[in-house]
Design goal:
Oligomer: single chain
Distance between the termini: 74 Å
Number of strands: 22
Strand order of the largest sheet: 2-1-5-6-7-4-3
Mean pLDDT: 83
CATH topology of the largest domain: Beta-Lactamase
Low-confidence stretches: 137-151, 332-341, 343-348
Helix content: 25-40%
Strand content: 25-35%
Shape: elongated
CATH class of the largest domain: Alpha Beta
Radius of gyration: 26 Å
Number of domains: 3
Largest sheet: 7 strands, antiparallel
CATH superfamily of the largest domain: GAF domain
Amino acid sequence: MSDLSILPPRCFWGVAPAVIATSSRDGVPNVTYLSQVHYLGPRRVALSCQFFNKTRQNVAENPYVSIHMYDPVTLEAYEIDLRFLHAETSGPLFDEMAVRIQAIASHTGMKGIFKLLSADVYDVSSVEKVEGFLEPHLVTGPAFPAGGPERRGEIRALQVVSDRLNRARDLDQLLTSLLETLRVEMGFEHSMLLMPDESGAKLFAVASRGYGESGVGAEVEIGDGLIGTVAQQRKVLRLSDVEGAIRYGRTIRDEATKRGGPELAAEIPLPGLPDARSHLGIPLLVQDRLVGVLAVESKHPLGLDEWHEAFLNIVGNQAAIAIDRMLDDDEIPIHATTPPAPAPPALAQKKRTFRFYKGDDSVFVDGEYLIRNVAARILWRLLTSYLSDKRTDFTNRELRLDPWLGLPPIKDNLESRLILLRKRLEQKCPDVRIPSRSRGCFRFEADCAIELVEAS
């Protein structure tokens, strides 16, 4: 048979690595593992070419190769005969295959070394299932749970997501309801949404589900690791066996170190689950401008399917537009009948000591790190105004006009910084709160006495 349709799509997800066999002009064989087999159609595939000098040499002399692929669920094997057509070193196909390798290389400190050289395109000559590869009692059959989010009605879920995004009062409610709806309606138990900081060089998590306190506030350099690569390349990235891919990258790193190559960068820790097996990153774009990254993980190697990628891509497009709209909205004035803010608490209550370090713009509460950078300066401004002027009501607009905060004039991400500050206070200092009153307006509340200390 000469059609790849007999293979389950999961054979191409990289969970079970494929093997390629080539032969020189003189008939000397060479067998090695492949990083990627990219499906292009029932009669065509693209193979990743990285370090395989002998494989490349053999293909140049003899364009006929054979690969073995494996179903990661049933472990059944397929033998596929191919004929080399051409190699692509740029363009959409190359970029799509390169982003996966780039993400793993970045995470393992191999950026610029462990990379895709070319996407080699092959015609399919024949496809055969390898009979007798497994003992009969080992074949589990096709009915095997993927272990990830089930299809619980994508149209209904899209309807709910769209409705919640449209009804969100502020950015915090928008992001919280988005991740919660994905959890309830689609079963995505582990997700986070990250947004760029003022410098545009980092992402920070402003909302998360399934990570406890470790989710909100996590930072990622753009270009580093899986999430950073999604942000840099503006491309969707789905990895079906993160652990195996990273293990492969570490093996290459060890070999490069033994051979005395250039000094390698340190391995970058992944934010999120330490035992994640599947990962999906969606760039949130308005035109080509990045407003955030939606990241979803699963503990199962087959936990995220192709339809999850398509579904979250649609959700991501809607979320990007909603976030961008929310960042641009002006404040809604507080209604005249809004009840007055409570008076500051009596000094007899529990005392909290906030210390602001001017050298690195960080704030500690009772000796424990709380927050830094722009969000820290915002908190310090609120604290000093609360103590000196007895102020409890603030607006986003006045913060934007405050030159000491250092917000950029365009797309300042103030709302996302307020969300981060609000959640960090909930985690580390629940006696102090900054609840939203209406869009663009919030209140400072404290159930404790406050002492402020400035340090260099």
